[in-house]
Design goal:
The protein is an all-alpha fold. The chain is rod-shaped, with a radius of gyration of 22 Å. The chain has two helices and no strands. About 85% of the residues lie in helices and about 0% in strands. It starts with a helix and ends with a helix.
Amino acid sequence: MSHKYALLSLIYMMSFVIVFDKARWQKKIRRFLSGNLFSREDLTQLQAIWSACQE
């Protein structure tokens, strides 16, 4: 009988990890799409670096 409970606890833990990971990735994707990934200063520095590399 203990094997059955061990299997159920393993399934429960795996489902918890899957749900938690999915929520974490959705938050990261939402943050990336909303544009809060870089500040204005970071973007101007990246644009300056990019334009220097193009020359």
